[in-house]
Design goal:
The structure holds two protein chains of two kinds.
Chain A lengths: L1 H16 L1 H21 L7 E7 L4 H12 L3 E6 L3 H10 L4 E5 L3 H8 L4 E5 L4 H22 L24 H31 L1 H6 L5 H29 L9 H25 L3 H19 L11 H8 L2 H15 L3 H25 L6
Parallel strand pairs in A: 1-2, 1-3
Antiparallel strand pairs in A: 3-4
Helix pairs in contact in A: 1-9, 2-7, 2-9, 7-9, 7-10, 7-11, 7-13, 9-10, 10-11, 10-13, 10-14, 13-14
Chain B lengths: L2 E10 L2 E11 L4 E5 L6 H8 L7 E6 L2 E2 L4 H7 E4 L11 H11 L8 H11 L12 H13 L5 E5 L7 H16 L3 E6 L2 H4 L4 E6 L2 E6 L1 H6 L5 E5 L3 H10 L3 E7 L2 E6 L6 H10 L6 E5 L3 H9 L1
Parallel strand pairs in B: 3-8, 3-9, 6-7, 7-8
Antiparallel strand pairs in B: 1-2, 1-4, 4-5, 9-10, 11-13, 11-14, 12-13
Helix pairs in contact in B: 3-5, 4-5
C-alpha cells in the first residue's frame, strides 16, 4: 500500500510540474464549452433578408412587419425588380428574398389565394431550410389569426410541443456532447501519454526490475487522472448550469456517478492505447485519431445515429461515448433515474471491464 | 555462484546479438564485461535482469532462474540501465524517496550503504534530476539502484559520458560497495576500467573472447610489444603500416603500440626504416601489454 501511495505521489509531481499540460487539461474544457455554447449554434438569429413587394398594400405591409419584427429576420433592403434578386445573393448581402405578388391583398380577398415566393441561398442547405421553415410558420400564423372568424369545413390543426427543450436551444445538445468529448480525450490521452512517457524515458525499465506490480503501476497512473477528470466534469456541469442555463432535471448524484464510470472507461481505453504504442507521439496520434473522430461523428452528438447507414449505426454501438451521451441527456433533460438508463450504464461498465482486462493482459512485464 | 550464465543465445529478427555465452560470477566479485558498442552487453544485462527472454540457454541470478523466478530477481537486484533513466522532473531527493518506497524501504534504513555517494549529491538534493551534470546523474542513479541493498548490482555502462575525475570516483565507490558484499556486474567500453575489475570477460559481436583476471589476460599477450614514438604521429602510423613485417599497429595515447611478426625482431632495423621515411626523434622501447592490446589481438 505504501508502495502504491508513493507511486501516486510521484504521478502528482509529474502532473503539477508540467505546467503546459496542466493548462491544457483545465483550459481546454472551459474554452470548448464556451466555444460550443456561444459560437456554434444551429439556431438562426437576425438573418438578413431582402423584400420585393410588388403590391405594397395593407396585407403585405402587415406581413412584412410581422416577419421583420421577429428576432429571426432583419430587413436588410428592399428591391424593386427581378434582376436585383440574383445580384443581392451574389453579393452575399442576404440569405433570403421574399417576393409578394402583385395585387396581393386583392387576390387574397377575391380569390382567397395569394402567393409569396421564398428564395433562399442554399449554399448552406441547413440554414436555407431553417429559414424557409421559419417564414412558413410565420405566414401560417398570420393566416390562422385571419381565419379565426371563418369556419372551414375540414381542418387539421397540429399542436406541436417540444418536450425537454421547448425553446430548442442547441446548447442543450452541445453540453452533453462536449462533456463527453472532453472527458474522453483528456482522460484517454493523458493516461496513454503518461504511461508511454515512462517507456520513452527508460524509467519503465527500472519500474519493471522492481517489486512494484503491473496493476499497481496501472492503477497508480490512472488514479490521479480520475481525480482531475472529476474536477473537469464538475467545471463543465457548473459552467453549463450557470452560463447556459442547462437544466439538471435528474439527480446530480447519479450524474456524478455516471460521469465517474465514463471517466474510468476512458482511462482504461487510455491504458489500452499505451500498451500498444511505444512513444508519446504515437499514443497522442492514436488517441486523437482513434477517439476524437468517432466520438464526434458517430456518437450522435452532432449527426443523428438513426439517419446513418446501417453499417455506421452498428459501429456506433461500440462507441462508449454514444451511450454516455444518451445517459447525460436522459439525466439532465428528462430527469430520469437509474431505472431508465441501467441498460446504457451496464454497457459502459461492460466495456470498461473489457478494456481493463485486455490492458492488464497486454501490459508487458518485459521489454518484448 | 552469484550469477551463472549457460549457453545463452539471443537474436533480434535474423541478427544475432548473443552467441552461446557462458560465464559465472562469484559472490562478492566485481566482474566486468568489456567490449565495444554493439557487442551485446546491454542485451545480456536485460536477459539477466529478466527484461528479455533468451532464445537459448539458461541463467540464474542469486540462485533464481531468470525466467521462472523473475519476481524474486526483481526484488533482490539493483539495475542501472545504460541510458539515464530517472525521473527528470523530480528532484534528487524525490527520486531517491520514490525508489526507496517502491522497494519497500526508506532512505534512512539503508543510508550507510549509499552515504559515501549520497553526500556528494546531497548539496543538490532539491535540484531536479534533469538539471544535474553527467557525473551527478550517474551518482544519483547508482544511489537509486542501491537504495534497497541489492544482493547483485547490474551496471550497464555507468561511466559512459562521464568526465575522467567522476569516472575515477565512481570506480572507487564500486570497490567500496564490493567490500560490503555486493556482487557487481559492470559493463564498459573503456579498457582502462577493465584493470579495476576482479575478473573480466572480453566480448565482441555477441561472443566472449576470453574470461580471466585483467592481469592474466594482459600477461598472456603472446608477443613482445613496443612503444613507438616520433615527431610526426600520422606519418609514423602510416609508415609502420607499410612496414612489411608488422603484426599490429595501434595508436595508444602518445605512443603507437607495435608488434612484429618475427620472434627475432631487432628494433634498430625498424628505426632505420622509419628514418628512411623521414621521421625524426624516433623512440622504440618494450612495454607491458594492456587489456586493450589483448582485446585488439583477440578481436583480430
Amino acid at each position: 500500500m505504501k508502495r502504491f501511495i508513493g507511486f501516486i505521489k510521484k504521478e502528482f509531481y509529474h502532473i503539477f510540474r508540467d505546467r503546459r499540460s496542466l493548462f491544457i487539461l483545465f483550459g481546454m474544457p472551459v474554452a470548448q464549452i464556451m466555444l460550443f455554447g456561444f459560437a456554434i449554434t444551429n439556431e438562426i438569429n437576425n438573418v438578413d433578408i431582402a423584400i420585393y413587394d410588388k403590391s405594397n398594400d395593407v396585407t403585405t405591409q402587415q406581413l412584412i412587419s410581422k416577419i421583420t419584427s421577429s428576432k429571426y429576420f432583419t430587413n436588410k433592403q428592399r428591391i424593386h425588380n427581378e434582376a436585383e434578386i440574383e445580384s443581392v445573393f451574389k453579393k452575399g448581402k442576404v440569405k433570403a428574398v421574399l417576393i409578394f405578388e402583385k395585387d396581393f391583398d386583392k387576390k387574397l380577398t377575391k380569390n382567397h389565394q395569394a402567393t409569396v415566393q421564398i428564395i433562399t441561398d442554399a449554399t448552406d442547405p441547413n440554414t436555407a431550410n431553417t429559414i424557409s421553415n421559419y417564414v412558413n410558420s410565420i405566414l401560417k400564423n398570420y393566416q390562422q389569426e385571419k381565419n379565426k372568424e371563418v369556419k372551414l369545413a375540414y381542418q387539421i390543426v397540429p399542436q406541436t410541443r417540444m418536450y425537454y427543450n421547448p425553446e430548442l436551444k442547441s446548447v442543450f445538445m452541445f453540453v452533453p456532447g462536449v462533456m463527453t468529448i472532453i472527458l474522453m480525450l483528456v482522460s484517454a490521452m493523458m493516461t496513454s501519454i503518461s504511461i508511454t512517457r515512462e517507456k520513452e524515458m527508460g524509467t519503465m525499465e527500472i519500474l519493471l526490475v522492481s517489486p512494484i506490480k503491473p496493476y499497481q503501476v496501472i492503477i497508480g497512473k490512472v488514479f490521479p487522472y480520475i481525480f482531475l477528470s472529476i474536477i473537469n466534469a464538475a467545471v463543465i456541469i457548473v459552467l453549463s448550469i450557470f452560463i447556459f442555463k442547462m437544466p439538471v432535471e435528474g439527480s446530480l448524484f447519479l450524474l456524478g456517478l455516471e460521469s465517474i464510470l465514463f471517466i474510468i472507461n476512458a482511462l482504461s481505453l487510455g491504458i489500452l492505447i499505451s500498451t500498444i504504442s511505444e512513444t508519446q507521439q504515437t499514443a497522442m496520434m492514436v488517441s486523437l485519431m482513434g477517439l476524437m473522430l468517432p466520438v464526434i461523428l458517430l456518437s450522435g452528438f452532432i449527426f443523428p445515429i438513426s439517419s446513418m447507414p446501417l453499417p455506421l449505426q452498428i459501429i456506433s454501438h461500440i462507441i462508449p461515448a454514444k451511450w454516455f451521451i444518451i445517459i447525460l441527456k436522459a439525466i439532465m433533460l428528462k430527469g430520469v433515474g437509474i431505472s431508465f438508463i441501467w441498460k446504457e450504464t451496464l454497457i459502459i461498465l461492460g466495456m470498461t471491464l473489457f478494456f481493463m482486462g485486455l490492458s492488464i493482459k497486454k501490459y508487458k512485464i518485459r521489454l518484448e | 555462484m552469484s550469477i551463472s550464465v549457460q549457453h545463452i543465445s539471443k537474436s533480434f529478427k535474423e541478427i544475432p546479438a548473443l552467441r552461446d555465452i557462458s560465464f559465472e560470477v562469484k559472490e562478492g566479485e566485481l566482474f566486468g564485461l568489456i567490449g565495444p558498442d554493439g557487442a551485446g552487453k546491454t542485451t545480456l544485462f536485460r536477459i539477466l535482469t529478466t527484461l528479455l527472454f533468451a532464445d537459448k540457454g539458461t541463467a540464474t541470478v542469486a540462485g533464481n532462474d531468470v525466467v521462472a523466478d523473475y519476481k524474486q530477481i526483481r526484488n533482490s537486484v539493483g539495475y542501472m540501465p545504460g541510458r539515464f533513466s530517472l525521473y527528470q522532473d523530480l528532484t534528487v531527493e524525490e527520486n531517491l524517496t520514490f525508489f526507496a518506497t517502491i522497494f519497500g524501504t526508506t532512505l534512512e534504513e539503508n543510508y550507510d550503504l549509499i552515504k559515501d555517494i549520497y553526500v556528494q549529491i546531497e548539496p543538490f538534493k532539491t535540484r531536479r534530476a534533469g538539471k544535474l551534470s553527467g557525473g551527478m546523474k550517474q551518482k544519483l542513479a547508482l544511489s537509486c539502484s542501491l537504495i534497497h541493498k541489492p544482493k547483485v548490482l547490474f551496471l550497464d555502462e555507468p561511466t559512459t559520458g562521464v568526465d575522467p575525475v567522476s569516472r575515477k570516483e565512481f570506480w572507487e565507490m564500486l570497490k567500496r560497495l564490493q567490500k560490503k558484499g555486493i556482487t557487481i556486474l559492470v559493463s564498459t567500453p573503456y579498457m582502462d576500467e577493465a584493470a579495476l575489475c576482479d575478473r573480466i570477460a572480453l566480448i565482441q559481436d555477441g561472443k566472449i573472447l576470453q574470461i580471466d583476471t585483467p592481469e592474466t589476460i594482459a600477461n598472456q599477450f603472446p608477443k613482445k610489444i613496443y612503444d613507438v614514438k616520433a615527431d610526426n604521429m600520422y606519418l609514423l602510423i602510416e609508415s609502420l603500416k607499410e612496414y612489411s613485417h608488422n603484426h599490429s599497429v595501434y595508436p595508444f595515447g602518445e605512443f603507437v603500440h607495435y608488434t612484429d611478426q618475427r620472434d627475432d625482431f631487432m628494433p634498430q632495423e625498424l628505426t632505420a626504416f622509419l628514418q628512411s621515411k623521414g621521421l625524426k626523434n624516433i623512440y622504440i622501447n618494450t612495454t607491458q601489454a594492456t587489456i586493450e592490446d589483448a582485446f585488439m589481438e583477440l578481436a583480430k
